[in-house]
Design goal:
Helix content: 25-40%
Number of strands: 9
Number of domains: 1
Largest sheet: 7 strands, mixed
Number of helices: 4
Shape: globular
Oligomer: single chain
CATH topology: Glutaredoxin
CATH architecture: 3-Layer(aba) Sandwich
Strand order of the largest sheet: 2-1-5-4-3-8-9
Distance between the termini: 23 Å
Strand content: 25-35%
Order of helices and strands: EEEHEHEHEEEEH
């Protein structure tokens, strides 16, 4: 997957209980962000940062979609607890994460396991990958994504 190419399509269950396809957002910019787990400190900060900038993304004709392996009931609780105004998508079998190259071997306290490498992809109105950030550091990232869309896709 490289910048400029068509972004891999998908259909996933969303936090609102409905199936969502990437193609549903043709004609809009899409901020597709992958995160490891609902209710964890870094993921909560990132989700709340996207929440706080949501209107600014909307003004740029951009939709935010969060993706993690959590089931729909955990997504619903996460959305409710933090007032998230965007959909979280269920990728329990991590097929979409694999397609986007973010399902990685991780290490934590000497333990190795497979999981999501925090990453964000900007998909343009034609469905092409416009920008990617891998191994995202949460602090300042949402503003960086917003600035990218403002400068390149609005």
């Amino acid at each position: 997957m490289t910048v400029g190419q068509k972004a891999p399509g998908f259909e996933l269950l969303a936090s609102n209980g409905k199936k969502v396809k990437l193609s549903d957002y043709q004609g809009k910019n899409v901020v597709l962000y992958f995160y490891p787990k609902d209710m964890t400190p870094g993921c909560t900060t990132e989700a709340c940062d996207f929440r706080d900038q949501h209107e600014n993304f909307e003004h740029l004709d951009a939709v935010i979609l969060g993706v993690s392996p959590d089931p729909v009931d955990k997504h619903e609780k996460f959305v409710d607890k933090h007032g998230l105004p965007f959909l979280l998508l269920v990728d329990e079998d991590h097929k979409v994460a694999e397609e986007y190259g973010v399902w990685k071997l991780k290490k934590n306290f000497g333990k190795e396991y497979m999981g999501i490498e925090r990453s964000t992809f900007i998909i343009d109105k034609e469905g092409n990958l416009s920008k990617e950030w891998r191994k995202v550091k949460v602090k300042g990232h949402v503003e960086e994504a917003l600035e990218y869309i403002k400068e390149n896709l609005s």
